[in-house]
TrEMBL record:
It holds the Pfam family adh_short. NCBIfam families: PRK06181.1. InterPro entries: NAD(P)-bd_dom_sf, Sc_DH/Rdtase_CS, SDR_fam, SDR_family_member_7. The chain crosses the membrane at residues 12-35. Belongs to the short-chain dehydrogenases/reductases (SDR) family. This is Dehydrogenase/reductase SDR family member 7.
Length: 345
């Protein structure tokens, strides 16, 4: 009888210890999430996964939208790693500037960086552009679809031409480049196609109806393409969903008219730094992460809320969306609605 009691007490003690360990683990994960700037898979890849320095060195990486923002920072960090680069955007002078900076920051030689001006809207030229890359380097290991523009305008005030331009540029232009590069990767049996989507590729947001539609289209296209390529395990299709990042995306955004630019971009300092965003992207690429959620709080929690509790997500975004519109009308950066009270114009 005494031995039985001892066994019961021992089992109870072990159970209590396991329960305490589990509780501590949960508390640590909650604490970690509060200060996180990417989903748990991404954080694991950044801390314990394969390093970009070993996985991307010597790779041929084609970056669209490489003249500014995330694309420009991708070029700098990839150059420092030792990747060979194809830099594409419309403005050749800006691409040449980025190339010179890459050469100054790395051990790359002139021939390791190809400046290739590209207009995503000129889809008839994409076959020739792809051939130019293959002629110069002989292969394309990674395609980073980063080119595109955002939007800052209300639906009722926006011309249809703006919606058409957003879909032509962000969606069809990206699909066109991908379709020309993909056969080469399938033939080789390896390669990575990475596309910069957005948090609004998963959730909606006011002032970005057309932009969100184009990013939702990209999500659907590449999620379907990934399944189609299941018989090509060497090919990775990944999408990057960043929250607000410090870049020129607001300054370059479409407004209600094609001929009108954003009058005032507002303060961008509350957003994630471009360098941190790009470092996380490279860690995701090195570890073949299929979908990357990148963003500071409270944007990161939005991903999870939309994924697992959409009813709550509708309520929260509805409230915050009104603040976003008020900030926009007050001449502030719309995203400050998630951090500060909107000012009266």
């Amino acid at each position: 009888m005494c031995q039985l009691s001892e066994f019961v007490l021992m089992d109870t003690s072990i159970g209590c210890i396991l329960l305490m360990v589990a509780a501590v683990y949960v508390v640590l994960q909650v604490f970690r999430f509060i200060f996180a700037d990417a989903d748990f898979t991404m954080l694991w890849a950044a801390s314990f996964g394969k390093k970009p320095e070993s996985q991307l060195r010597g790779r041929v990486v084609w970056i669209t939208g490489a003249s500014s923002g995330i694309g420009e920072e991708l070029a700098y960090q990839l150059a420092q790693i030792g990747a060979q680069l194809v830099l594409s955007a419309r403005r050749q002078n800006e691409l040449e500037r980025v190339k010179l900076e890459c050469l100054g920051r790395s051990r790359l030689q002139e021939e390791d960086i190809l400046v290739l001006p590209l207009d995503l809207l000129d889809r008839k030229s994409h076959e020739a552009k792809t051939s130019a890359v293959l002629k110069h380097f002989g292969k394309i290991d990674v395609l980073i679809n980063n080119g595109g523009r955002s939007q800052r305008s209300l639906c009722l005030e926006t011309n249809m031409e703006v919606y058409q331009a957003l879909m032509e540029l962000n969606f069809l232009g990206t699909v066109s480049i991908t379709k020309h590069v993909l056969p080469h990767m399938v033939q080789r049996g390896m390669g990575t196609v990475t596309t910069v989507s957005s948090v609004v590729g998963i959730a909606g947001a006011p002032l970005a109806t057309g932009y969100a539609a184009s990013k939702h289209a990209l999500q659907g296209f590449f999620n379907s393409l990934r399944i189609e390529l299941a018989d090509s395990p060497g090919i990775t299709i990944s999408t990057i969903c960043p929250g607000p990042v410090q870049s020129q995306i607001v300054q370059n955004a479409f407004t209600e008219k094609l001929s009108k630019s954003v009058s005032q971009a507002g303060d961008q300092q509350h957003k994630m730094t471009t360098s941190r965003c790009v470092r996380l992207i490279l860690c995701g690429l090195a570890n073949r992460v299929k979908e990357m959620w990148i963003g500071q709080q409270p944007f990161l929690v939005f991903f999870y809320v939309w994924q697992y509790t959409p009813t709550l997500a509708w309520f929260v975004t509805g409230r915050l969306g009104q603040k976003r519109i008020k900030n926009f009308k007050a001449g502030l950066d719309a995203d400050t609605a998630y951090f500060t009270k909107p000012k009266v114009a």
